[in-house]
Amino acid sequence: MDNRQSGFAYVLKIFVIVSLFSFVVFAAQNQRVIEELVSPMPEIPLKKAMGAKAYDAAINSRDYSYVGNSKCRLCHRNFFLGRKNDPHDHAMESLESSGNDKNPHCLRCHSTGHGTPTGFIDMEKTPRLANVQCEGCHGPGNIHIALAKDKVKNEAKKFTGGGFLAGEGTTEVLKNICTSCHTERWNRSYHDFDKAYNSYKKADPSTGH
After folding, report:
1. Which of 38, 153, 159, 209 has the most CB atoms in a 10 Å sphere around its CB?
2. For the domain bounded by 41-199, which CATH number is listed?
3. Are 64 and 143 in contact (CB under 8 A)?
4. Is the dihedral of CA 140, 145, 150, 151 positive or negative?
5. Contact status, residue 198 vs residue 174, Cβ threshold 8 Å
6. Side-chain half-sphere of 10: how many Cα atoms within 13 Å?
7. For 79-100, how does the pLDDT look when each residue is reduced to its tens digit (9 = 90+)?
8. What does the longest C-alpha to C-alpha distance in the chain come to?
9. How many helices (H) and strands (E) does the chain have?
């Protein structure tokens, strides 16, 4: 076998290996989707994290509503810009490419507030709440904004964590938010939970700045 034939055989071998690997990855991914779609509807992440009693009391009070991260950027511009590089801010892309962008099973963890009265519905009605934004982890932000504008006037409002249902002083709730979506089935994002969690205290988790 001359050098040309040897080279061709080597390239063919690599192509076969890569193709088989890609097939295995695709099959595994497809199997996860199938398993998800035949499973019971996942619980709303915020509800699972807070507990049903606390969540129902807060949401049923109608004091809380989602506002979208365009409101957050007014005071937290560095975090707003930093998150543009983060996979959470592109969470809807995989749903759109797979045709699951209206599937409630998937939207619970790929959008902001889906399943709640003021949360994400679909790209036509509520595009401002697409992807996993600030409120996707912290909960509705309207009271947080009201406190920022006039804390004295709004101090009587029921709130925790600076006006968020999951914010400062509610670390365990925030951690529960993470594990509500990053389950054993879908967790390929991190291997060290505490390290990953702490990275999100920075504006851009990918750079640590």
Report:
1. 159
2. 1.10.1130.10
3. yes
4. positive
5. no
6. 7
7. 999 999 899 999 999 899 989 9
8. 85
9. 12, 0
What tokens appear for 167 in the block? 């914010």
The burial of 175, by beta-carbon neighbours within 10 Å (0-12 exposed, 13-18 middle, 19 or more buried), is given as: middle
CA gap 68, 87 in Å, rounded: 17
- Which pair of tokens denotes residue 15? 């192509």
Q: What distance in Å separates the CA atoms of residue 188 and residue 19, rounded to the nearest whole number?
A: 21
Burial class (CB in 10 A: 0-12, 13-18, 19+), 143: buried
Give the integer Cα–Cα distance in Å for 101 and 96.
5
Task: For residue 130, list its beta bridge partners.
Answer: 111
Residue carrying the six token digits 């998800």: 36
Q: Residues 18-33: pLDDT tens digits?
A: 444 443 333 445 666 6
Torsion of CA 84, 140, 46, 42, to 10 degrees: -80
The pair of three-digit structure tokens given for residue 96, joined into one six-digit string: 């759109």
